[in-house]
Amino acid sequence: AATHQDLEERVARGLFREDLYHRVNVIRIELPPLRARAEDVPALLTHYLAVAARELGVEAKALSPAALARLTRHDWPGNVRELVNLCRRLSVLAPGSEVELADLPPALGGATAEGAPPADWAHALSSWAERHAAAARTPLLQAAQPEFERVLIRAALKRSGGHRQEAAKLLGWGRNTLTRKLRELGMNGAADGAR
Questions:
Q1: CB contact set of 188 (below 8 Å; sequence gap of 6+)
Q2: According to the CATH classification, is domain 138-191 in 3.30.40.230?
Q3: pLDDT at 68
Q4: What are the residue ranges spanned by the domains of the chain?
Q5: Which CATH number is 32-111 given?
Q6: How far apart are CA 182 and CA 195, in angstroms?
Q7: Whole-number percent of the chain with pLDDT over 70
Q8: pLDDT tens string 57-109
Q9: What does the alpha-carbon distance between residue 51 and residue 58 come to, in Å, rounded to a whole number?
Q10: CB atoms within 10 A of CB 45
């Protein structure tokens, strides 16, 4: 069992059962939170990137010096679970064999969607296509095109402030085509407030 609570103090105040305290307090290991052990972060990142690669069947990623420096400075409020989840995410989403600063989520100092270089999405799409083709599911275009259109439609509606005519123009479509696509893709909710 693990806790950040002072169980002895909670038992004394009657907030934790004493019998349960004695059951879980066989061996006590004081382990400071990850934010207090920044020197451990590089080794943990390397280890969990390798574990994630093995579990997900992808090539293990390395961290660029800039990405490693940024992650070492991170406070890790979610502790090791946050670090493990980040390693899994980077193993799947980061293009190339080295994780760059721009590959990190925006909250960790990575690039925003608008700031990401075009090659990043092309590489991510290529990786997805290879995995999808290997799994022999539906044809690639049949699976990718609707999602691709959803992403572009959402971006156009956001950019146009919900104005369908302007969004359609951004997409190179007429307003009727946009309306039809919204219906076909089940995105009528995405156009709520659209004009």
A1: 182
A2: no
A3: 95
A4: 1-30, 32-111, 138-191
A5: 1.10.8.60
A6: 13
A7: 89
A8: 889 999 999 999 999 999 999 999 999 999 999 998 888 889 998 889 888 87
A9: 10
A10: 23
pLDDT band at 7 (very low <50, low <70, confident <90, very high): very high
**Tell me, what's the pLDDT at 113?**
44
Please state the pTM of the whole predicted model.
0.52
| SS3 letters across the chain | CCCCCCHHHHHHCCCCCHHHHHHHCCCCCCCCCHHHCHHHHHHHHHHHHHHHHHHHCCCCCEECHHHHHHHHHCCCCCHHHHHHHHHHHHHHHCCCCEECHHHCCHHHCCCCCCCCCHHHHHHHHHHHHHHHHHCCCCCHHHHHHHHHHHHHHHHHHHHCCCCHHHHHHHHCCCHHHHHHHHHHCCCHHHHCCCC
CB neighbours of 147 closer than 8 A, spacing ≥ 6? none
